[in-house]
Structures are given as structure tokens and as C-alpha cells.
Amino acid sequence: MKKQKTPAKQGDYEVGNKKPPKNRQFGQPAGNPRHNGAWKKEDTLRFKLQQIAKMTAEELEDLLRDSQAGEFEKSAARTIIEMSGMDPEKRWRILEGLTNQDGGYPKQQVEQHNIEVKPIAPKPKKEKK
């Protein structure tokens, strides 16, 4: 007959059998972080560009003076400030280029019809008589 382990006591809380000590549980300073390990939306270039695009001219100038801001944010702010006098089509092309730096273009599907299928293997050579 197997002897079952009894959980150790830590204060008024039982420890063991998938019950970590209170200070090691999620959300505690010494515990596992609650983040699941996936990327965070706030860290993506696209999200940062969206936030910069919403800024006023004064906020963009403040961003350029901020020593904690990253180079992408500063470059995007500079570009948006410089774009203010351009025609809409040129502004759109620049914004599209900034946006596609991170994720690229979406997947595009191309349908092909009436494709001639050629054999991969070469034709057999004619035998000499």
C-alpha cells in the first residue's frame, strides 16, 4: 500500500500537491508573472505608429524631445510633422510604408487558370539502330 504525502503547512495554508507557497503564486513579487509569454500589442511597431498618428503637433514635438522615446517613435513623429504640407496621396504612401515596415503586406491569393503542365523528366532519347 502506497503512503500518501501529507502537504506541508506554511502558516494557515497547505503547501504541496500543486499548491505553491503564497509568496510564489501568480501576482506575488516572487511568483510567476501573469503574462502568458506571447507578444504584447503595446510593443508592436504598428500599435506605436497608431498612437503617434493620433498625436497633436505639440505632442509630436514633446515626443521628439523625450530622451526615453525609441528611435522608431521619433522617426515616425518627424515623418508625420514633415508630411503636414504634402498632398494627401503622398502622405498616404508614406504612412503605408511606415505601417508595412513591421508586418509587411497581407497575404494575397492569386488564382491561375489554364496552366500548361510540362513534364519534369526529359523526353527519352531515341535509340540508335
- C-alpha-based Rg, rounded: 30 Å
Write out the strand line-up for the largest beta sheet, numbering strands in chain order.
1-2
Structural class call reads mainly alpha
N-to-C CA distance: 87 Å
Please report the total strand number as a whole number: 2
Let me know the average pLDDT.
Answer: 78
Report the oligomer.
single chain
- Tell me roughly what share of residues is in helical segments: 25-40%
Flag low-confidence runs. none
Beta content comes to under 5%
Largest sheet: 2 strands, antiparallel
**Strand and helix order:** EEHHHH
What this model shows, in words?
The chain is mainly α and 129 residues long. The chain has a domain at 53-100. It is 36% helix and 5% strand. It contains 4 helices and 2 strands; from the N terminus they run E-E-H-H-H-H. It has a two-stranded antiparallel sheet. A hairpin with a 2-residue loop joins strand 1 and strand 2 (13-15). It is flat. The protein starts with 7 loop residues before the first strand and ends in a 26-residue tail after the last helix.
